[in-house]
Design goal:
Order of helices and strands: HHEEHEEHEEEEHHEEEHEEEEH
Low-confidence stretches: 1-28
Structural class: alpha+beta
CATH class of the largest domain: Alpha Beta
Number of strands: 15
Largest sheet: 8 strands, antiparallel
Number of domains: 2
Strand order of the largest sheet: 1-2-3-4-8-7-6-5
Strand content: 25-35%
CATH topology of the largest domain: Protein Transport Mog1p, Chain A
Helix content: 25-40%
CATH architecture of the largest domain: 3-Layer(aba) Sandwich
């Protein structure tokens, strides 16, 4: 029996068996991102099967950069290639990579790192950035990269098609809704660890504004009420150990910390029920009221 099985295995390796190929490709059919790839985008059709990569084999696609994605929360990568009819053998005209980062804040962290913090609203309405050859954006828990290798590829149309396919309910990013509309947004970035050198301040969204001709940096950390209280205790412990002066004031039932920092200058901390705001460089009562009103803790 064993020699017969060995012979069959050998023969399978020498011949094309559609059933075998179908069985292998079915292993990736559990990937929800498969539905995010249209069969056709304008005159460009999808070429071949969608490839999927996990933590175990991501290095095969992004060799040298795989650990970065995995450490940021990576779950799965799906890759689709598109080309014009009759050009299949010449390589793809466009490649779409969809990284499932499991959480929207982790997807935004990748976008922030890859863009250097210079993200903006694209033509499709998605948040992302452009390069000479492509577009990257986030939609819920997914980080998407689209690369074009043909000048006839419309990156904006590809972005619109893919953006429309990804469910808006895929772990939406409510943190953006907590950032106030207080002035001109310069840039938004994500800091995964040790914000401003403080090892207890992690997973921070920072947005830089121009307000009344002055620049300010606002940061946001989200979490459960207990997490926010613990974070405030870490801040006050740090202030006391570093001999940094601070005062507390009560405004609309919220305790606000005014910090006299010899290194960072004057700044404030506003702890709320499920988030903590900090404002550096410039702030006033109007900005504080905007944060309290937006949070619902007024």
């Amino acid at each position: 029996m064993l020699p017969v099985i060995a012979l069959l295995v050998y023969m399978e390796g020498q011949t094309y068996d559609p059933a075998l190929i179908q069985f292998q490709s079915s292993l990736s059919q559990t990937d929800p991102a498969l539905s995010f790839f249209p069969d056709k985008i304008t005159e460009f059709s999808r070429i071949g099967q969608i490839r999927t990569f996990t933590k175990e084999n991501l290095y095969e696609y992004v060799n040298g950069h795989a650990e970065y994605f995995i450490s940021a929360g990576f779950s799965r990568l799906s890759v689709g290639e598109y080309g014009e009819a009759g050009t299949e053998g010449d390589g793809p005209d466009a490649v779409v990579d969809i990284y499932d980062m499991e959480k929207s804040i982790q997807a935004f962290g990748i976008l922030s790192d890859e863009s250097g913090g210079s993200t903006h609203s694209l033509q499709s309405g998605a948040t992302g950035f452009r390069t000479q050859q492509g577009i990257s954006f986030v939609k819920g828990q997914y980080y998407v990269r689209i690369a074009a290798y043909n000048e006839n590829v419309s990156l904006d149309l590809f972005t619109q098609y893919i953006d429309d396919r990804i469910s808006a309910g895929s772990d939406p990013f409510p943190e953006f809704a907590r950032l106030p509309d207080i002035g001109e947004v310069v840039q938004t970035r994500f800091v995964r660890e040790a914000y401003r050198g403080l090892d207890f301040v992690n997973n921070v969204i920072e947005r830089e504004y121009i307000v009344g001709g002055k620049k300010l940096q606002l940061f946001l950390v989200t979490g459960e009420e207990g997490d926010i209280k613990k974070l405030i205790r870490s801040f006050t412990d740090f202030f006391n150990q570093s001999e940094i002066e601070y005062d507390t004031i009560d405004r609309m039932g919220v305790t606000i910390y005014e910090v006299k920092d010899p290194f960072e200058g004057d700044w404030i901390l506003i702890p709320l029920s499920n988030s903590l705001f900090g404002v550096y460089s410039h702030y006033n009562d109007e900005i504080i009221d905007a944060l309290l009103t937006l949070s619902g803790d007024r």
